[in-house]
């Protein structure tokens, strides 16, 4: 399991393929898994690796909040596709049939047996990629939900918002943000499937809790 060396072009290609149908390394919201992989990359992926570049720029936007993201950071080798061996830190002078680089340089000499094994593994990897389901368009949305006054029960307000369930909607992290005069607004993140959930639907459902909610605004909207 792993991406290989994420400072190499080969490792970045594996990461790009891994993210072709995923928004994050694990789950549906940014987590310590994304930070662990992000910190292993030396520079932004090239433009042709657009899945990896899209993910890199998105995680970079969480730089100031990375310590507060959910999850526990694990070793880099714990993340990535199960059929790609982690080669980070492997000795460059060690070569055997059990440690063949799937994306090895054409300039390296290799035995016929090793070459055959590498081609078989590449064929298996390509076959698995082709069987992946179609990519579902998703968006990460940050919502500002404002109460009526400073006496509004914000815990109950958040409970009401999170009670909204829909196919293609996943609620994420939240926090209370002061807006003045002792009033705090609820700032909450969600990930939606674009063809199933829209901001109009969210606003209609959230503002229906009129005993607690004065208004709802979209603070940030990012395609993922």
Automatic annotation (TrEMBL):
Q: This chain belongs to which protein, by name?
A: Elongation factor 1-beta
Pfam families from the xrefs?
Answer: EF-1_beta_acid (PF10587), EF1_GNE (PF00736)
- InterPro entries per UniProt: eEF-1beta-like_sf, EF-1_beta_acid_region_euk, EF1B_bsu/dsu, EF1B_bsu/dsu_GNE, Glutathione-S-Trfase_C_sf, Transl_elong_EF1B/ribsomal_bS6, Transl_elong_EF1B_B/D_CS
| Main function | Catalytic subunit of the guanine nucleotide exchange factor (GEF) (eEF1B subcomplex) of the eukaryotic elongation factor 1 complex (eEF1). Stimulates the exchange of GDP for GTP on elongation factor 1A (eEF1A), probably by displacing GDP from the nucleotide binding pocket in eEF1A.
Q: How does it assemble?
A: EF-1 is composed of 4 subunits: alpha, beta (alpha subunit of the eEF1B subcomplex), delta (beta subunit of the eEF1B subcomplex), and gamma (gamma subunit of the eEF1B subcomplex). Interacts with elongation factor EEF1A1.
Q: Which UniProt keywords apply?
A: Elongation factor, Protein biosynthesis
The UniProt GO MF terms for this protein read: guanyl-nucleotide exchange factor activity; translation elongation factor activity
According to its UniProt entry, this protein's organism is: Indicator maculatus
């Amino acid at each position: 399991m792993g991406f290989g060396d994420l400072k190499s072009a080969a490792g970045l290609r594996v990461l790009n393929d891994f993210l072709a149908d995923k928004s994050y390394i694990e789950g549906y919201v940014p987590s310590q898994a994304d930070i662990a992989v992000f910190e292993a990359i030396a520079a932004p992926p090239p433009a042709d690796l657009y899945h990896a570049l899209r993910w890199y720029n998105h995680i970079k936007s969480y730089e100031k909040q990375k310590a507060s993201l959910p999850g526990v950071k694990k070793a880099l080798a714990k993340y990535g596709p199960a059929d790609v061996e982690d080669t980070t830190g492997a000795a460059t002078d060690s070569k055997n049939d059990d440690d063949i680089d799937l994306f090895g340089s054409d300039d390296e000499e290799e035995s016929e047996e090793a070459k055959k094994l590498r081609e078989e593994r590449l064929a298996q990897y390509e076959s698995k990629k082709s069987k992946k389901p179609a990519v579902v368009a998703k968006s990460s949305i940050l919502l500002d939900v404002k109460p009526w006054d400073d006496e509004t029960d914000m815990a109950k307000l958040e409970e009401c918002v999170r009670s909204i369930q829909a196919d293609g909607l996943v609620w994420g992290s939240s926090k209370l943000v002061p807006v003045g005069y002792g009033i705090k607004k609820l700032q909450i993140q969600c990930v939606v499937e674009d063809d199933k959930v829209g901001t109009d639907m969210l606003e209609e459902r959230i503002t229906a809790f009129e005993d607690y909610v004065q208004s709802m605004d979209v603070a940030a909207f990012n395609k993922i």
